[in-house]
Input
Amino acid sequence: MLLEKPIEQAINTLKSGGILLHPTDTVWGIACDPFNREAVEKVRKIKNKPEKHPFILLTHSIEIIKKYVDNIHPRIETLLSLHQRPLTIIYPGSDSLEPPLVNDDGGVAIRLVKSGVCSDLLKAFGQPLLSTSANLHGDKTPGHFGEISSDIIKSCDYVFPFSRDEKNNGLQKPSPIATYNPKNGDLEFIRE
Output
């Protein structure tokens, strides 16, 4: 497999507390091990993200989401398994996570990544990734690798190889974000 070596290098970077610049199922992201506080702070500094702004988690399976979310309504589980477009959901009340992975109300934003290089990376890593778009906080999200600032690229410990032919090379837009009501399973969209 052509991507075996880059995924291996990316995982070694993550496990050593490094910062990764990688393609996601939407846009290019800055990522780290979410349970390494020093790495999380590095990402915050690279992005110039305010303390009060939480990050999102990426994962490849509903089972991993269930480790961090107390209750997923069956409607949401069905939606996640059938929905083709990437979707970030803010789940309320995650007791197993702390800031900056949760918001002031204890909610956690998680996106299920179903395919592509990012999904392969998540499967190989075996746990969620903290990920954020590859731009400074408040700046426009880059639509492709060529729009990522050289300062951000230089700040990352490993830059996933860029390929114009790759499906998941960040030529999309950020995912919609919705809040989840555990009582009725309804979603309210914050960003579409």
In short: The radius of gyration is 16 Å. The beta strands are 20-23, 28-32, 56-59, 88-91, 108-112, 129-133, 158-159, 177-180, 187-191. The CA atoms of residues 165 and 171 lie 11 Å apart. DSSP finds six helices and nine strands in the chain.
